[in-house]
Amino acid sequence: MAPVKSTPKAKRPSRYVIDVSAPAGDKILDVAAFEKFLHDRIKVQGRTNNLSDAVVISRDGDKAVIVEVKIDFSKRYLKYLTKKFLKKNNLRDWLRVVSTTKDTYVLRYFNLTNQEEESEDEDEE
């Protein structure tokens, strides 16, 4: 019996959302600069500035940055680039990137209030 060859399925477009509403609302993150950073740094087939129609980056006001891809693309790569942007702008100490759903990341503040209370308790002892 001859082996059956499977035809590759067409890749349906994926949509990834990075919610930046908390830091953008506090005016510590520039959403336009973040969008430009992603546009300049995302690699397609090993090359930057090769986005063409395969990757479309847009923003939803100051709430979110939306990345629509029509090729195989790793959500983890977006997290890597987001962390790189935060480090470049010295925001990595206050913000973290958290996945909330299958296709969404949220920038959240570290919970510093609990750590401050614990350090005060240690100082009293």
Structure description:
There is one protein chain. By secondary structure, the chain is of the alpha+beta class. Helices cover 34% and strands 28% of the residues. It is built from four helices and seven strands. It has helices spanning 21-25, 31-41, 75-88, 112-124, and strands spanning 14-19, 43-44, 47-48, 55-60, 64-69, 95-101, 104-109. β4 (55-60) and β5 form a beta hairpin. α2 crosses α3 (75-88). The longest helix is centred in the middle third of the chain and has 14 residues, at 75-88. It starts with 13 loop residues before the first strand and ends with a helix. The mean pLDDT is 86.
The strand order across the widest sheet is 4-5-1-7-6
Distance between the termini: 78 Å
- The tally of strands reads 7
Uncertain runs:
none
Largest sheet composition: 5 strands, mixed
Structural class: alpha+beta
Keywords:
five-stranded mixed beta sheet, 4 helices, 125 residues, elongated, 34% helix, two-stranded antiparallel ribbon, 28% strand, alpha+beta
